[in-house]
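Lecture 7, part 2: worked example. A protein chain together with S-adenosylmethionine.
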Amino acid sequence: MSPASSLFGTAHAWLYILSQRAVGAHLARYACLEALAPRAGERIVDVGCGPAYYLGRLPAVDYHGFDTDQRHIAWARARFSGHASFYAEPFGEPHAARLAPVGGVLLLGLLHHLDDEQAEALLALLARALAPAGRVVTLDTPFFDGQSAVARSLARHDRGRYVRRPEQYRDLADRSFGRREDRIVGDTRRMPASHFMMVLREPRRSGPGLTR
Ligand SMILES: C[S@@+](CC[C@H](N)C(=O)[O-])C[C@H]1O[C@@H](n2cnc3c(N)ncnc32)[C@H](O)[C@@H]1O
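Predicted complex, written out as structure tokens:
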């Protein structure tokens, strides 16, 4: 990477992190890490990890972050090298086969960037890779009744093209997981953006075994 593109990539990651802080979205991420409650040494897969600025809040886990944005991955590698593995590519079957059984999965801000077919395929693949006692934590921008005007406006301007209602996220999740807890996070003075968090357990394994 040239010095100019490296500088541009660093600015891109910092702008993202600052935009998260401006709407309290980082606090929602921290709530997800608490819900995941990873143990030291546990294998954690983070799909759509972005710059993974929250990684320092995890114990010493076996972390694997995936993102299709090369600039975010370059920033994360520079910041956390030696503590984690980063992949500038989507999470696919060969990764699932190599990393299974996975203890915990983070999908923070990802599903609302994927259409139904992509989201369903990813959740099904993760269900096949998850350890029996594993869990998946998702966090996405929603539209819901009673949402404040500020949160709704932020949701309307979200870059994700597939911002859904809670029942639509639930429907996608329930195709691959037998147990789900969910709640709205944010839409408060401290955290103006609203988020829909799901914790998914009891993976339904469908299809053939994983192949590398
Ligand atoms: C809203 S950001 C979330 C980043 C980070 N997880 C966080 O919570 O701050 C969504 C990320 O998903 C990435 N992304 C979108 N589609 C993806 C895909 N199919 N596979 C992996 N990453 C993807 C984007 O590049 C972007 O960095």
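The domain at 3-203 is CATH 3.40.50.150 (Rossmann fold). Strands lie at 43-47, 62-66, 84-87, 102-108, 130-140, 177-186, 194-203. Keep this in mind for problem set question 3.
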